[in-house]
């Protein structure tokens, strides 16, 4: 029950924050603007999200013209690719239909009011006719008010549905970027965060480092003790990563028995210290097989470190770390190597 209340409070706070931005910057609740904000919250486009963040921090903020530019630049060729995308599109289509119907009705009622105004301007109008025109005006204005209230209620409901979708998107996005076994970030999370950091540290590349890690002889270990024990080792190492890292470090399971750490605002020496701390802690660990308390053999890992270079392709950055990891394994394993080291057997 407490978790439900916490989630409700968090959803309300998020909705209030979004409503405040729309209100302060006088953003039109148009389908285009909803689509822009939907993509912003979904977070699948790092560059788009960074530009939106920058816009929201700008004194001029977000407006309709900005929304149109962002839509044309990033979104106009997009097609719905998920069930949530399609639900959101149907929601927008329904909103457009309701607004269009209300606009048509408003135009018709305005025409009626204009006709009544002309009839009221007739000379020598008799009291009975005046009463009929007045009653018609009152009926039309009441109908107009009710139509307006209905549309406002529809828009409020649509906004709440959008908020619900947004919460689902946040949860789905978080799950889609989490490795199920270790609960670290997965390869997708790594790629997205690497793009963000490469752009952020383009002017100070020597403060961004990548550590690639591979548990030594893991296939042989799996063959001997089985995949369940191997999975336990991977989970143990993932917890070791979490316990030995700064909060700002990005931790991911890169694939199989490989892990990755993205360190920002760090020096090469700090990256080496981080890797060496992990290497020593893993080697020192005394792991036992569950159920039998059998002590497992020593487990070690090899580490390769690369420092980011201004203007380089991200694949090259990854490959340089991977090259050093390969050299660490080829020259004895259980070691940390950077591209500035001279490996020795």
Structural class: alpha+beta
Question: Residue ranges: pLDDT <50 for 5 or more in a row?
Answer: 1-15
- Mean pLDDT score: 77
| Rg over C-alpha atoms, rounded to the nearest angstrom | 30 Å
Figure out the total of helices: 11
The counted number of beta strands is 5
What is the H/E string?
Answer: HHHHHHHEHHEEHEHE
**Strand portion, in percent?**
5-15%
Shape: elongated
Distance between the termini: 59 Å
Give a verbal description of the structure.
There is one protein chain. 64% of the residues lie in helices and 9% in strands. It starts with a helix and ends in a 7-residue tail after the last strand. The chain is built from eleven helices and five strands. The chain has a five-stranded mixed sheet with strand order 2-3-1-4-5, sandwiched between helices. The chain is elongated. It folds into two domains: 2-176, no CATH class; 187-338, Reverse transcriptase/Diguanylate cyclase domain (Alpha-Beta Plaits, 2-Layer Sandwich). Residues 1-15 have low confidence and may be disordered.
